[in-house]
Specification:
The protein is of the alpha/beta class. It has helices spanning 24-37, 101-111, 123-134, 159-180, 195-203, 218-230, 268-280, 300-318, 338-341, 353-360, and strands spanning 11-16, 41-44, 59-61, 89-90, 99-100, 116-121, 139-143, 183-188, 208-210, 236-241, 253-254, 264-265, 284-288, 324-329, 332-337. 34% of the residues lie in helices and 17% in strands. The strands form four sheets. The protein has a seven-stranded mixed β-sheet with strand order 3-2-1-6-7-14-15, with helices on both faces. It binds 6-O-phosphono-beta-D-fructofuranose (F6P).
Amino acid sequence: MANLGPHKIHRIAINTGGGDAPGLNAVIRAVTLCARRRGWEVLGIRHGYGSLLGGEPVMKLNRQAVLGIASQGGTILGTVNRGNPFETYITVPGCKKKRLAADVIVDNFHKLKIDGLIAVGGDGSMRIGHKLMQMGIPIIGVPKTIDNDMACTHRTFGFDTAVQTATEAIDKLHSTAAAHERIMVVEVMGRYSGWIALHSGLSGSCNVILIPEIPFTMQAICDHILNRRKLGRTYSIVCVAEGAHPKGQGMFFKGGKVRGREQRLGGIGEWVASEITKRTGLETRSLVLGHLQRGGSPSTYDRLLALRYGAAAVRLAAEGMWGNMICFNPPSMGHVPIEEVIRDTKKVSVYDDTVLTGREMGICFGD
Ligand code: F6P
């Protein structure tokens, strides 16, 4: 269903899925205002696909409903990052046997006479959207994640704000690290890619940056820190991406596997800190920035980007170009088939100019 051609639209819906990211509300606002100006009705589906699964009813979105929300973090629709509808069976009133959640979503989508869905989410949401499209739901994807790891798009909204938050936190660590002549290890988010660690680590003047794309050795890190000591630099700051890992070892996960959701990364920061103490004898502390990076008001950059993503999605819907995801090809917005996007995630290249900049400035990447 890649291109159905222009067709008359009466009603569209929008939902937000996966972990929240600053800028979601700005997308909702842009989609609502742009669609209403074309005379379309807009429905907000609550908590991922919840409203189509018997959860909270859909929300009617109009100018009043989206008033002043572009500057707010979170999402007025709510979101979920668990429960794949293609792996979940649910009880439906009047039906003895449990039904596949995806089938229920499709039925209720048609019952509500919705012509198309703007699905705002990460790669997991795009994968679900792609399958729902094959079952007859016309979908346009809008990429979202603080991790900036979505393929086929230069930048996702939420990333800039997350990097800003992480950088401000790192800035604050300098004075306490200096006062105590300590090593501080800060773990940031990013899933399987190192965009947040690279950008905040460099901007926050960290001395060591560890990212999943460059497996590290403790020897390289400790040598670097001890060298700095010899040169009279009494403290060091290490920025580690949650997905970073030692050479020859896997990533660090928290808790066990939970059905229907990705395993949670975490713990590498604490491990690196304890290894530094063990190997150098230097006093080391670690902290995890965690969900702080997803919170708060979107930066101006993210707000504007999110508004542009939303407007581009409505434009594409008007052209009948369902089955595509909006992408940002600076300076323009473009689109790409969703099936291309879900093949892989976007990783930091070891030849990235930001990595090169760090290396030339003497930052240690642990290799
Ligand atoms: O994808 C966004 C993200 O914040 C990742 O950086 C992180 O690994 C994950 O979500 C955390 O998910 P949860 O909200 O389930 O803890």
